[in-house]
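Could someone model zinc ion with this protein?
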Amino acid sequence: MVGTVTISIEIELGWGIHDRQQYDHLSDDGRVERRCLYRLLDACDDYGIPISFDIVGHLLLHSCEGTHSGPYPDGWFDEDPGTDMESDPLFYAPDIAAEIMRRRTDHEICTHTFSHAVCDTMPPDVQKQELEHAQRLHERVTGNQTESLVPPRHVCPSLDALNDHGIEIVRVQDDEPASNPVHRFRELLFGPPLVRSPEFSDGPVETYCTRHPNLTAPSLPSGRSPPHSAFRWVPIRMGQRLHERYLRTATELAVERDSHLHLWCHLFDLNREYQLPPIESFLETLGELEREGAIDVETMKGLNEQIRSETTSEPEPEEQIYA
Ligand SMILES: [Zn+2]
Ligand SMILES: [Zn+2]
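Reply:
Sure, complex below.
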């Protein structure tokens, strides 16, 4: 049996919660987040693990005027500084995309829309505009449009918008809210993790993930923020061990069920002291499992190709002959 594992990381920096003017979760100049990313990229190179980095399209710009064409609601770009990468590295980050592309591991740079527009609050023409701007920048920066989308806050654009802009695979949140906070707490700490094969009918391929980030641990400080108060009693080392176990169990489950595990987090969830050590050790394990043939590690792009080729190569049902 072979399981498949996909890892996606949202790179949004200042754009993640700009609609609520929230930046406390970030460093002032994005340097801390960049350092975390580079260390993660080192581990990926060491163990041969590719990741889908879904980036907010605006971060691919070196500079801008502070406003962008399209039928956006009034004030949508109020937080756009209208400067450049040197002045506002939380709003412009072409250096990040360049660094990911420079690495020897074949990572994917895919999209998280152009300006982190949450689709259920936006009219359909804004959803299309977001993908149009993003695709144009992807083509300019990476040489190709992307077929993979991670929609902000798990809210998917319309099928029309996806089809019109060449999106072939989307990450979709699958887990139901827990029946009560105690169940939620247990689930986040101990699992069981969500393992589910991607599905594909006439729209894009859907790859399923949990509502909360699960590449990083809820019981450990997330970036610059302390863990949720429910987890503050968990000692750091115990939180790390529990998370290592969560990641290992999730992977074993994917192998056992011949299924798929999609792990994700935001770039700002990572931090060097607490979150990265268990992730690095997990990437090492993944590399070993892949060499043994137990696991395939696929980016969303790779997963899309795999699912579509399996679907088209399925044998036709044999014709029944009735005497
Ligand atoms: Zn701008
Ligand atoms: Zn996001």
